[in-house]
């Protein structure tokens, strides 16, 4: 099944070509739309929602044409815009109920759905306070809740991690993964931060200057390498030392250790070393190429 498809999609503004003959498709699951600021991500979403007409080309969302069936699309799609667009004087509950009513839900159902959705996105007692006093992370959650409240089949999330601190970012990414996996809602999520999408996406579309650079399943971006990634809460240096003493090449990237996996038994060795040193293991997994590396190589090849 195709969730979205474009063919020769072009959008020219007076001074800039935001999309340049973009032909791409995406299936169900979580799709990352990656590109630097100004790459054309928001423009693409606005065209797919029928908010902006393309200059040339065609698009389809859930089999519907944004040029003629925009209302049908909006019934089935939730949209979390990039910029702050929340009214400061009302509470998250009032706002989300209002958005549910706008989608056609009766009053009682709108209240129930709003309460459920706000709980899902992690807003509890504070949902009764005016939005104006919320942190950026809480505002992002309200934007997500209003996109989810009418039970869409597809969500467009435009830069949902913008302005969040690392913890807030992790929470938001986990939430997106859950929406995709547990609720079976397909998600198109944009980011200019390539690295963060590899954790949550099934498929990644990379655009640059309005053109398609690459569209692939995440596995093709991030093939296994001959290395193991290890993360411990504390004591990374001691662990690195121990593994080096056992003859393994180890590089440190912040809290992550990348351990050369040339010989059999490396996983066991890491496990035993973590145990001996009494460390808390956060992660022990096969190393993968990172989207960021692939993007850098492909962007360089296009210059
Ligand atoms: N309404 C508009 N009028 C004129 N130019 C526009 C308009 N909207 C977008 N652009 C331009 O089109 C290009 C693509 O913008 P777009 O917002 O789609 O990029 P983006 O990838 O979403 O980046 P960002 O994350 O910074 O918003 C940019 O050069 C932008 O300045």
TrEMBL record:
The record ties this protein, via InterPro entries, to: AAA+_ATPase, ABC_transporter-like_ATP-bd, P-loop_NTPase
Q: Where would I find the ABC transporter domain in this sequence? A: 4-234
Q: Which domain of life is it from?
A: Bacteria
Kindly indicate whether the keyword Chloroplast belongs to this entry. no
Q: Name one GO molecular function term.
A: ATP binding
- Signal sequence annotation: none
What SMART domains does this protein's entry cite? AAA
**Alphabetized SUPFAM superfamilies for the sequence:** P-loop containing nucleoside triphosphate hydrolases (SSF52540)
**Keyword set, alphabetical order:** ATP-binding, Nucleotide-binding, Transport
Keyword field contains Lipid metabolism: no
Q: Which family does it belong to?
A: Belongs to the ABC transporter superfamily.
Q: What is this protein called?
A: ABC-2 type transport system ATP-binding protein
Q: Which organism is it from?
A: Sphaerisporangium rubeum
